[in-house]
């Protein structure tokens, strides 16, 4: 479980950094398509990390044996 949590954290932080880099690059006037593609890739990476984080939270513990 800790591996999935660590992977989720990396994906979220990587996605945020990629989106921030795309925002900075687009403000400096770099290629529009490249910055748009980088922002979309960052958003997808962020959503992947959120999905992993949710699965870590959801599968964290069982409620015990069925009654």
List keywords for this structure.
2 helices, mainly alpha, 67 residues
Helices and strands in order, then pairings?
Layout: H1 2-27, H2 32-58
Helix pairs in contact: 1-2
Summary?
By secondary structure, the chain is mostly helical. Helix content is about 80%, strand content about 0%.
**Weakly predicted, low-confidence segments:** none
What's the number of extended β-strand segments? 0
Rg, Å, rounded: 17 Å
The first-to-last residue Cα distance is: 26 Å
Characterize the main sheet.
none
Helix content: over 70%
The rough form would be described as rod-shaped
The helix/strand series, from N terminus to C terminus, equals HH
Q: Quick check: average pLDDT? A: 86
What is the SS-derived class?
A: mainly alpha
How many domain modules? 1
- Which band does the percent of strand residues land in? under 5%
Give the count of helical stretches. Answer: 2
Model description:
It is a single chain. It contains two helices and no strands. It has one domain (1-61). It has 67 residues and is mainly alpha-helical. It has helices at residues 2-27, 32-58. The two termini are 26 Å apart. The model has no long low-confidence stretch (mean pLDDT 86).
